[in-house]
Design a protein that fits this description.
With 123 residues, this protein is mainly alpha-helical. The chain has helices spanning 6-47, 77-83, 87-94, 102-122; strands spanning 64-68, 97-101. The model has no long low-confidence stretch (mean pLDDT 92).
Length: 123
């Protein structure tokens, strides 16, 4: 039976949680683990058998990294996977990236840092 009064509904939820805290925490922990596993499998599937954008070599998913090239970065994809966000949010963030191997990603990051320092030294 749904509550018509929001305050009563909130209080009923609090009472339920107080009585069943351990079961609720255990159920949430299991679900969070399932979501993180699903998200990691999704990202690994995206990375699988895709060549590096720079060198063209194919590496295992744990070598491949997402390089954000578009504005509006919400966060690192690995953090989003761990936080348990939806697959739609992860895919939106992946769409802002290029997939490169860890060596090429390091080269890109270093080049950007050098360019940025040269730009600052001009002023």
């Amino acid at each position: 039976m749904p509550f018509t009064d929001k305050a009563k509904q909130l209080e009923a939820g609090r009472r339920h949680y107080a009585k069943n805290a351990e079961q609720v925490k255990a159920r949430v922990a299991v679900r969070n683990k399932e979501i993180r596993f699903r998200n990691k499998a999704y990202v690994d599937d995206v990375k699988a058998n895709v060549p590096c954008m720079d060198c063209g070599n194919v590496y295992p998913p744990y070598i491949m990294q997402f390089d954000h090239v578009l504005e509006g970065k919400r966060g690192a994809i690995s953090n989003l996977v761990r936080e348990g966000v939806s697959l739609q949010v992860i895919q939106t963030e992946i769409d802002k990236c290029e997939l490169v191997c860890s060596n090429c990603h390091g080269e890109r990051t270093h080049s950007r840092k050098v360019e940025s320092q040269e730009f600052l030294e001009e002023y």
